[in-house]
């Protein structure tokens, strides 16, 4: 970290009270401050996901969990993770209070720093909470940062984010959808079958099953402009999952400058989360849409 003394910019109301937020959002991971309950929450969630994910999560993710030793017992120390990460792909975890302003978040990613919320959910929040905590950020996102291609994709996303932020809110929305449908909720079609790589799925017991097994959601082949023009759900399981063939495909699709795509999408009405485009979609599974919420998507 170049910034030894972060500048305090404002206070922010969170579940844990009123907390200072620094210009870079970075704090020290207060490891010795974790309670016994905090460590038990990590152990419970870790065990629960690891029992379920073999055969569901992609091999790159499972390999990452193992290489980091995330199941050693208790909440991992970011410093230990960083030793492994620095050698493998040059990424670094930084501890943060929670959600960062978009441009701050992008700046971290563009510099191969991944922000991880230092605090963990309460025992009564094992299945759902509305903001990303340590389990989601660390267990969900960090294992794939050991994969060189995915690691480069995350950095490219950060750079793209800084550009989109400068272009305007519509461009930023297009890019946010890309993140949502890949980094958070992506599926990958492997030789062994359909697998999960999205952090929002692997960190959720319910969605780890639903995303692969349920009849209701669509599973549609990844297409960059299609994804950027598709709204999403923040309050329910996804109505559509987009399927990549490989991390190389994902990285290559995101290499070109997005400016002309943003321009093209500007006058188009976005697709609803549940839409299937009969003419153009590569459909892996046409969802039954049973039980879908019909109020507006994000
Ligand atoms: N901040 N800490 C943190 N983690 C995120 O995942 C995150 C964020 N700020 C903004 C953000 N995500 C997204 O809205 C961006 O992809 C646009
Ligand atoms: Fe996330």
From TrEMBL:
<dbReference type="InterPro" id="IPR018301">
    <property type="entry name" value="ArAA_hydroxylase_Fe/CU_BS"/>
</dbReference>
<feature type="domain" description="Biopterin-dependent aromatic amino acid hydroxylase family profile">
    <location>
        <begin position="1"/>
        <end position="298"/>
    </location>
</feature>
<keyword id="KW-0479">Metal-binding</keyword>
<comment type="similarity">
    <text>Belongs to the biopterin-dependent aromatic amino acid hydroxylase family.</text>
</comment>
<keyword id="KW-0585">Phenylalanine catabolism</keyword>
<protein>
    <recommendedName>
        <fullName>Phenylalanine-4-hydroxylase</fullName>
        <ecNumber>1.14.16.1</ecNumber>
    </recommendedName>
</protein>
<dbReference type="Pfam" id="PF00351">
    <property type="entry name" value="Biopterin_H"/>
</dbReference>
<dbReference type="InterPro" id="IPR001273">
    <property type="entry name" value="ArAA_hydroxylase"/>
</dbReference>
<keyword id="KW-0503">Monooxygenase</keyword>
<dbReference type="InterPro" id="IPR036951">
    <property type="entry name" value="ArAA_hydroxylase_sf"/>
</dbReference>
<dbReference type="InterPro" id="IPR005960">
    <property type="entry name" value="Phe-4-hydroxylase_mono"/>
</dbReference>
<keyword id="KW-0408">Iron</keyword>
<dbReference type="GO" id="GO:0004505">
    <property type="term" value="F:phenylalanine 4-monooxygenase activity"/>
</dbReference>
<keyword id="KW-0560">Oxidoreductase</keyword>
<comment type="pathway">
    <text>Amino-acid degradation; L-phenylalanine degradation; acetoacetate and fumarate from L-phenylalanine: step 1/6.</text>
</comment>
<dbReference type="InterPro" id="IPR019774">
    <property type="entry name" value="Aromatic-AA_hydroxylase_C"/>
</dbReference>
<dbReference type="InterPro" id="IPR036329">
    <property type="entry name" value="Aro-AA_hydroxylase_C_sf"/>
</dbReference>
């Amino acid at each position: 970290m170049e910034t030894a003394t972060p500048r305090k910019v404002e206070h922010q109301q969170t579940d844990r009270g009123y907390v200072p937020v620094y210009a870079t959002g970075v704090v020290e991971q207060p490891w010795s401050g974790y309670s016994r309950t905090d460590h038990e929450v990590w152990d419970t969630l870790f065990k629960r996901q690891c029992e379920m994910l073999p055969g569901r999560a992609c091999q790159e993710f499972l390999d990452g969990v193992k290489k980091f030793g995330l199941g050693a017992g208790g909440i991992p120390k970011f410093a230990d993770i960083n030793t492994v990460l620095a050698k493998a792909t040059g990424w670094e975890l930084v501890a943060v209070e929670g959600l960062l302003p978009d441009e701050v978040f992008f700046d971290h990613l563009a510099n191969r720093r991944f922000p991880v919320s230092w605090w963990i959910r309460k025992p009564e929040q094992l299945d759902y909470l509305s903001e990303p905590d340590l389990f989601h950020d660390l267990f969900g996102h960090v294992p794939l940062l050991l994969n060189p291609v995915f690691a480069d994709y995350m950095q490219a996303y950060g750079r793209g984010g800084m550009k989109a932020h400068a272009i305007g809110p519509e461009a930023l929305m297009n890019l946010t959808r890309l993140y949502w449908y890949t980094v958070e909720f992506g599926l990958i079609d492997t030789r062994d079958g359909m697998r999960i790589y999205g952090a929002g799925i692997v960190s959720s017991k319910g969605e780890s099953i639903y995303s692969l097994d349920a009849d209701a959601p669509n599973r549609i082949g990844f297409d960059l402009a299609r994804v950027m023009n598709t709204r999403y759900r923040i309050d329910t399981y996804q109505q559509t999952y987009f399927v990549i063939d490989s991390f190389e495909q994902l990285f290559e699709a995101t290499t070109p400058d997005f400016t002309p795509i943003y321009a093209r999408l500007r006058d188009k009405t976005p697709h609803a989360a549940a839409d299937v485009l009969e003419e153009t979609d590569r459909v892996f599974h046409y969802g039954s849409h049973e039980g879908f919420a019909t109020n507006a998507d994000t």
